[in-house]
Amino acid sequence: MKKEYRNSARTKKMIRSAFVDLIGEKKVIASISVAELAERADIAKSTFYNHYDDIYAVADEILRELLGSLDMIIDAMDADKTSDYHIYIKRIFNFLKENEDLYRKVSGSPDAIYFIDRIKHIITKRVFANVKSPFLSKNKTERYVQISFLANACVDIMVDYFKGEIDMSFDELEKTIMSILDKMM
């Protein structure tokens, strides 16, 4: 049973990897066929259908994994109960750096707007509900605007970076964003 599970996990990983490569090349999910994804993953089409209903199911799984990882980071932030936002920003940057290749390939797709909007919404919602900071307004509406502003700005800057529109290293970008946040706070 364990071997079967490992094979299944390995196959899904190969499918997701092939999907990311193809979205990086083709830019639009609708232009990716199951046949070419299966060929790229070096599996049979029937094997693909054993794991996913269609191409969009692969995209949805990648999004769920991403959002799950972000939720874990925010959960850890909430559990720490510290007001030092540097720790949280560093955790998010570490997560982004670990998955930089994925984000570079996906961010060039017009379909990425769905992912990006969901990420902004999740971050804003979770931080608003769970993070207490002396830097944020006590007024709920103002605090929501502050958090939304920061989440949208940071996510959009990272998307620009992943698209290759910002000419600096990942570490330089992290330092720049931290410096801006320090001045704002």
Please tag this protein with its features.
185 residues; mainly alpha; Arc Repressor Mutant, subunit A; 2 domains; elongated
From the spread of the alpha carbons, the general shape counts as elongated
Order of helices and strands: HHHHHHHHH
**Ends distance:** 53 Å
Largest sheet: none
Low-confidence stretches: none
Helix content: over 70%
Task: Describe it.
- This protein is mainly α and 185 residues long.
- It has two domains: 1-52, Arc Repressor Mutant, subunit A; 55-184.
- It is built from nine helices and no strands.
- It has helices at residues 2-26, 34-41, 45-51, 55-80, 85-98, 100-107, 112-130, 140-162, 170-184.
- The mean pLDDT is 86.
Summarize the structure in short.
This protein has 185 residues and is an all-alpha fold. The protein contains nine helices and no strands.
Protein topology:
Blueprint (H helix, E strand, L loop, with lengths): L1 H25 L7 H8 L3 H7 L3 H26 L4 H14 L1 H8 L4 H19 L9 H23 L7 H15 L1
Helix pairs in contact: 1-2, 1-6, 4-5, 4-7, 6-8, 7-8
